[in-house]
Amino acid sequence: MSRSFFLAFGLVAAAIAAVPAAQAQPSGGGACLNLQSQEGQQLADARTLYIRASGKTYRLGFAHDCSSAPNETLILHPVANDPRICKPIELNVSVAATGERCIVDSLTELSPDEVAALPKRFRP
After folding, report:
1. Strand bridging mode 48-53 / 56-62
2. Which domain holds residue 79?
3. Which of 8, 28, 63, 73 could hold 96 in an S-S bridge, CB 3.0 to 4.6 Å?
4. Is residue 38 assigned to a domain?
5. Which pLDDT tens digit goes with each residue over 20-29?
């Protein structure tokens, strides 16, 4: 093959590699939760946590009961040390006092109507 083909291929590969990953949008067009702008959180039950951040409310669902969570402080830590969470797998949640892990299996931004429908005790 010609030298110009390899040079062109190399330039295309370099251009693709230069696109910053931070500009990538989450798959499915979902919204991202920014933990740095967290304004509050409220545990509704052993499998549901509501978080308010940047004026929006999000629901985190846990894969199993976090039995000690209702009475303890939860620690939310981004897996990649990036405060922007777009997928459940990007967030580690644990119970401060016991170290129990709560596996996040869903992350949903609630609409204003859904937030209004929440009982006041569950609103963050």
Report:
1. antiparallel
2. 31-122
3. 73
4. yes
5. 333 333 333 4
Over the chain (124 residues), the average pLDDT of each successive run of 10 is 42 38 39 92 92 95 83 89 94 91 95 95 91
Residue 21 domain flag? no
C-alpha 2/C-alpha 24 separation (Å) is 34
Bridge partners, 98 (sequence order)? none
Distance CA 52, CA 61 (A): 15
The answer to whether residue 26 sits within a structural domain is no
Domain count, the chain: 1
- Token readout for 59 is 């629901």
C-alpha distances (whole Å) from 2 to each of 9, 27, 59 are: 11, 38, 56
